[in-house]
Amino acid sequence: MQINTIENKEKRKNYVTKILRRTRGMSKNGQIAVVKIPKLKGPNVHMIGGLSSSRILNFKTKRNSYKITDCN
User: Fold this and answer.
1) CA 51/CA 58 separation, integer angstroms
2) What domain range is 61 assigned to?
């Protein structure tokens, strides 16, 4: 049994082009493929409140994080 027949080589070529195809493009010579964008990270905004079945009892918003002492 011959493994590297012309028919098997053609089957492997078709498999590679069909299954293992690139999903992204390539960069031009001398350029990077990834474009750097500025970070868009803003401050944390936390909301904490108390509810009853008929109304909102207390509601606060705060920038940055809540600590245990802030919640008690």
Assistant:
1) 7
2) 42-72
> Looking at the domain assignment, is residue 60 inside a domain?
yes
> Within a domain: residue 52?
yes
Structure-block tokens of residue 23? 């999903």
pTM: 0.31
Helices marked H in 1-72: 6-19, 68-71
How far is it, in rounded angstroms, from Cα 37 to Cα 30? 19
Count the residues in the chain: 72
Per residue in 9-22, pLDDT (tens digit) is 898 888 877 776 66
| pLDDT band with cut points at 50, 70 and 90 for residue 25 | low
Question: Percent of the chain scored above 70 by pLDDT?
Answer: 79
